[in-house]
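User: Show me sequence and structure for the first protein, then do the same for the second.

Assistant: Starting with the first protein.
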Amino acid sequence: MIVALIILGIVVLLVLYVISLYNKLVKLRNRIENAWAQIDVQLKRRWDLIPNLVNTVKGYASHESDTLEAVIAARNAATTAQGPADQAQSENMLTGALRQIFALSEAYPDLKADQSFLELQEELTATEGRIAYSRQHYNDQVLKYNTAIETFPAVVLAGPLRFTEREYFEVDDDSRGNVTVEF
């Protein structure tokens, strides 16, 4: 009788541990989803500012149509990207295209002094900061989750319970370098 109670107690403790571990993994997965949603909000904010920026630049530098078209194409690619890796690649292209627009302002003093352009540039800069913060938060959550599913004893349960490794949202540092503009 005592042996049966001890075995029953051990089984109950194991079941409670598995339930606790499962709940922990679900919480971590949900935090990743929430962090990705925050990145998405900031990216959409950035995408919404771009048409206004292009229209402002078009008024001063209409013959720079290749640069403006590259920004629109990069924006459209970014809005349709799926998943962190694809999104990061499209955002790298968009960042490079935006840098070309900001470099144009150096060649057009009237554009550089335009209040709308300055406000849009400031909004985009602030949004870039929020994107960077959101990306860092997302990557921190992915690190916690991936570590949790790869360590013992969770690694034994993670696979059968369909907890799979998540991708980081990594931005290519080369896309943030200096811009060369020739006229």
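Switching to the second protein now.
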Amino acid sequence: MTRPMTGPEERLAAMGLTVPDVPAPVASYVPAVRTGDLVLTSGQLPMRMGELITTGKVGGEVTAEEAYACAQQCALNAIAAVKAEIGDLSRVARVVKVVAYVASTPDFTGQPGVANGASELLGEVFGDAGRHARAAVGVPVLPLDAPVEVEITVEVSDAPGGAAAGV
């Protein structure tokens, strides 16, 4: 028997998550831009219902576990920005690249583990199409004293039910 096909939003629902509203930009930019078959998101902060879920530096006031959850929220917000740009998440053919910025203390070296919060969520939501290239970068400070910021680049297909539909 074949497994029923589920789309990205059904996979999110199975995890107890929904696509949030796109967070309002904190400066002069748009949440996402499409060029050709690519959608690039602006850096997304760990905003939930209009507020940061935590502030501070990872390795200081923020634990690696809290930062992992922040990276997940950033990825959810990036997914929301992509959906607002293309309308239907089943049009995502591939997550191409993820960049995670982690505001951390000078001695914290666990940025890749924090970035896994975003990477693992994208993998669960988009299946094999969620496997991506990535950078995890430690920085001294992020906007609004956020501990994590994530941007993603996705490839989209012209029709719903693209490569990611049956993954």
